[in-house]
Amino acid sequence: MKPTLFGYGLTTKAIAKKLGGGCTFFDDNAKEAYTDEENNHILPSHLFDPETSTLEVTTPSLKPDHPLIKSAKNLLSEYDYFDKEMPFSIWISGTNGKTTTTQMLTHLLKQRGALSGGNIGTPLADLDTDAPIWVLESSSFTLHHTHTASPDIYLLLPITPDHLDWHKTPEQYEADKLKPLLTMKEGELALVPKGLNLPETNAYVVEYDSNAFIAEYFKLDSALLRFKAAFLQDALLALAVTKVLFDEADYALMNTFTLDAHRQEELTDAKGRLWVNDSKATNLDATIQAVKGYADRHIHLILGGDDKGVDLTPLFQDMQSLSLTLYTIGANNQKLLDLASTYNIDTTESKTIEKAVEEIDAVHTAQSIALLSPAAASFDQFRSYKHRGETFMKLVKELKN
């Protein structure tokens, strides 16, 4: 039986392909019915009739109040749909760092046949069900829509309110991040940040509050790792899983892992000064971790963009104790200026990344650090966070000696 598919996207198209095509989609972007090259039928969303469908699978991004979601009577997430075929699975979620941790853990487990998928870019339909381990980056959207599937190990990184336009409240966002605990079984490990409102669960829950705790609890030596700040925690959490599963911690292998571009990517300019491209820091927590990681220097911080209405107060409270100059850009420029005034942060209104780099160039030294860590999405001024990061790197490389 082929399911009705909600949203003509990466996840649902992969399911249709696995089923040999001939599936029915309902999609907001379809103005009239059409058939694609796989003989799938794509219809406008408003034509969906729940009485004629016995099974629906949704793309993760559809909001809970979307008419399709509200009218569906047999709704599954991608995870639920593949529940019975899913091998031993490790789900990784969190506000920031879940992609890196998923990549790190897959790097450590690759020799054991592990595959990564989910929010990291590979739909579950494209993963080999004969693989011994799936490492799944799990978005809060997917977790919200998942009701029956369950991980064998759940790894939750620190969370701060995000996607509130989707989840509506910080409480609901937290509840969705903790949802896997509801279906986990006795003896299965859930490693979660301390201080969250945990639901009743049969899982074995370990609550962590620091890198030191993770290292001590799992008998790891963080001094043997080359990573720092949030990336050190990501590496420790990945090693914690291999320690639990196989009683091994391969520090040498972990240290060969290469971070993605635009994640605290360091560049030295023609004058020998350090610039850091952290354009992928699109939320509050990522930027907090970045500034903490460079707290031993004076920081020239470029901040701003589309923050989706998130309260940035915690970041400004942290900046109060640092030697730091702020350069504001993007759509939330005025909001940043108001917060800087409230918390007495030395600030320059740059408005654009070009102006910010120019202004930092005039005062940057070999002892300071220039950091692009926007705590906001990029679409107000750029095509993507990659475009923003590439623009920043290009500007730095063009600086004269």
Helix content: 25-40%
Task: Describe the strand arrangement of the main beta sheet, using strand numbers.
Answer: 3-4-2-1-5-6
Head-to-tail CA distance between termini: 66 Å
Structural class by sheet pairing and helices: alpha/beta
CATH topology of the largest domain: UDP-N-acetylmuramoyl-L-alanine:D-glutamate ligase
Q: Mind describing the biggest β-sheet?
A: 6 strands, mixed
Number of domains: 3
Roughly what fraction of the amino acids lie in strands?
15-25%
Tell me the overall shape. Answer: globular
CATH class of the largest domain, please? Alpha Beta
How many E-type strands? Answer: 18
Number of helices: 15
Based on CA atoms alone, the radius of gyration comes out at 22 Å
- The overall average pLDDT, rounded, is 95
Poorly predicted regions: none
Give the CATH H-level superfamily of the largest domain: Mur-like, catalytic domain
CATH architecture of the largest domain: 3-Layer(aba) Sandwich
Description:
α13 (333-342) links the parallel β16 (324-329) and β17. The chain is built from 15 helices and 18 strands. The strands form 3 sheets. Strands 3-4-2-1-5-6 form a 6-stranded mixed beta sheet. The protein has helices at 10-18, 67-71, 78-81, 98-109, 140-145, 164-167, 170-177, 211-217, 229-246, 251-255, 284-293, 313-319, 333-342, 353-361, 385-397; strands at residues 4-6, 24-27, 34-35, 41-44, 56-58, 75-76, 88-93, 115-118, 133-137, 153-156, 189-193, 204-208, 265-268, 274-277, 299-303, 324-329, 347-351, 369-372. The N and C termini lie far apart (66 Å). With 401 residues, it is α/β, with parallel strands linked by helices. The chain folds into 3 domains: 4-76; 80-255, UDP-N-acetylmuramoyl-L-alanine:D-glutamate ligase (3-Layer(aba) Sandwich), CATH 3.40.1190; 265-397, Alpha-Beta Complex (Protein-Tyrosine Phosphatase, Chain A), CATH 3.90.190. The model has no long low-confidence stretch (mean pLDDT 95). The chain is 32% helix and 19% strand. α4 crosses α9 (229-246) and α11 packs parallel to α12.
